[in-house]
Amino acid sequence: MAENHEIFLHHIEGIFGTTDLIKYHKCPRGGDPVSVFIHRDTPRPGMITGVTYGLSRHPHPDWKESRPEMIIAIESGDDMWAWMAAYFCAEFRGEKRFCRGAVFTSEGPLASDTRMDGLLVFEQSILDPKVEAFDVNDYRIHFSQFYPIYRSELDLYRRLGLEVFWKHVNLAKYDPKRPPIHGVLAAVSCLCIGQERYAVMHGIRERPRDALDSGWILASGRESRQLGSDAKNYKLVPLEMMIDSDATLAPLRDFPVGTEVTRLQVSEPWRFIVQGKVVDDDGNIVGGVKDAS
User: Exposure check for the chain: N or C terminus, fewer CB within 10 A?
Assistant: First the structure.
């Protein structure tokens, strides 16, 4: 009787043909490594496809009907994309379910040809449904697929939900160079927009009005009382576009609703305004509000 790995290999070679390269990553908690079978110019020229084996060999208690193995397919020639699939499967095997909507992120770009730093799990999109699930000796395997995303998109993902977010990603789901989805908007002072703009030195995050509202109101601190009080002097701008132009705004992604921040110089860390006082990360009072304007 054929071993499970022989059944698996026979199945994927029946779909993709002979494997071009095999890489693997060891699980930090022990057990068999996760391999990834790499197929170049698949499913079309200029793409690379990786298929993992090893995730399903260590069952998760929530896997009742079948167990996943992962596919990744990218418009790229960099094998690192395929290896990242093996990496995340090995690192989180036994801990995560690898279910639809799961997200895995890294501290830097996933490969040499991208700025993307995350993978989203969704239904596979390159196989005939007739071959996306099959039986080995003692369990059933189904294929799910990794799709590249940006960590900066996670706030939008949480706001929109998987189904709406996927409608955006789906348009360029294999493209490692697609720009981030600029969905969440900030209300930005006109003094912080344009070629001669001032840097953002103050922000307050109100409760969002809808899924595409970040809640952020951003200003330079140079606004007059009259200018600052008129909503016409604020423009809706994608928060990620503001961060692209000034990387020091990146922490604003993670500050919760109700946060008010300020700084005196762009080179300084953000400080928080709490009950009319300016405080640092440790809660120490470092000044009054008038000191930060």
Answer: N
Per-residue pLDDT of 111-137, as tens digits, reads 999 999 999 999 999 999 999 999 999
| Contact by Cβ (8 Å): 143, 126 | no
pTM: 0.68
> pLDDT per residue over 201-225, tens digit each?
999 999 998 777 899 999 999 999 9
Question: What pLDDT is recorded for position 289?
Answer: 60
Separation between Cα atoms, residue 20 and residue 163, nearest integer Å: 34
Measured distance between the N- and C-terminal CA atoms of the chain, rounded to whole angstroms: 76
Distances from the Cα of 191 to the Cαs of 69, 185, 221, 235, in angstroms? 51, 17, 9, 10
d(CA 213, CA 210): 5
With contact defined as beta carbons under 8 Å apart, do 25 and 90 qualify? yes
Q: How far apart are CA 121 and CA 140, in angstroms?
A: 19
Please state, as a whole number, how many other Cβ atoms lie within 10 Å of the Cβ of residue 60. 17
Q: Alpha-carbon distance 112 to 176, whole Å? A: 10
Q: Is the pLDDT of residue 292 over 60?
A: no
293 vs 280: CA distance, rounded Å: 16
Which residues are within 8 A (CB) of 244 and not within 5 positions of it... i.e. 6 or more apart?
none
Cα–Cα separations (whole angstroms), residue 158 to 101, 120, 142, 274 = 10, 13, 26, 27
Nearest to 148 by CA among 196, 194, 114: 114
Residue 36 or residue 163, greater confidence: 36
Give yes or no for a contact between 103 and 120, defined as CB atoms under 8 angstroms apart.
yes
CA torsion angle 47 53 58 60 (round to 10): 30
Q: Domain extents for the chain? A: 4-172, 185-274
